[in-house]
Amino acid sequence: MSDTHAPRGPRRTDVIQHVGFEHAGVIADAARARGHEIRMYQAGVDDLALVQDDPADLLVVLGGPIGVYETEAYPWLEAEIAVIRDRLHAQRPMIGACLGAQLIAAAAGARVYPGTREIGWAPITPTEAGRRSPLAALAEADWQVLHWHGDTFDLPAGAELLASTAATPHQAYAIGSHVLALQFHPEVKPGDIETWLIGHTVELGRAGIDPRTIRRRTGEIGAVVANAGERMFTRWMEEAGV
């Protein structure tokens, strides 16, 4: 379903956040431009029953530094996966970023496991399906995106691969027109990058990555990528009918 105008009437996007400094960014901007109210939930703190019992037009599941498979250490992950699984079965629109994409994969029955760490700005390689999809907007940024992950996942059954990197073959996938799952972070606004550098300082140190490198590259291309990302999410929402 597609339209050329923002939908009329009240719409809502629910956002599940895992760490306070990883925001919905340009996803929220695109949703608000289409008339959506944003309702925020903090994973592990807020009861996600309302997400399930009063489903929004769109659910956005954001990133975080924990693993999908760490359910013994973070038992609330099982409830979050159950919420996502119910939404998958109902074919309600959903976007996942990084951990969010991994949680959607797990809810769809795919394996999530440690992969190759990728942190910083680098390009993705779209598949032919990706070039035809809303991801095509990222071509305006030479397919550059912000990577910040250490885990990966198998492609869920019935999903269509949209993009890869050499280190991480499954960088983006779609399930029908109702799920967009991205291992990378096109949602990030350049003005927010300093909170990422502070929040992930231990990880950056362990990986031997100088935060000045990411800060400098963000200044060069961050705004271009964010603008392309907003156009990508807007087109996806139009095609998903939300």
Automatic annotation (TrEMBL):
The Glutamine amidotransferase domain is annotated at 26-193
The protein's matches in Gene3D superfamilies, at most eight in alphabetical order, are given as:
3.40.50.880
Per UniProt, the enzyme's principal EC class comes to: ligase
One Pfam match, given by its short name, reads: GATase
Q: Which GO terms describe its molecular function?
A: GMP synthase (glutamine-hydrolyzing) activity
UniProt keyword terms in alphabetical order: Glutamine amidotransferase, Ligase
Task: Report the EC code(s) recorded for this entry.
Answer: 6.3.5.2
GO cellular component terms given for this protein: cytosol
The protein here is known as Glutamine amidotransferase
Report the source organism.
Cupriavidus metallidurans (strain ATCC 43123 / DSM 2839 / NBRC 102507 / CH34)
Q: What is the lineage of its organism?
A: Bacteria, Pseudomonadati, Pseudomonadota, Betaproteobacteria, Burkholderiales
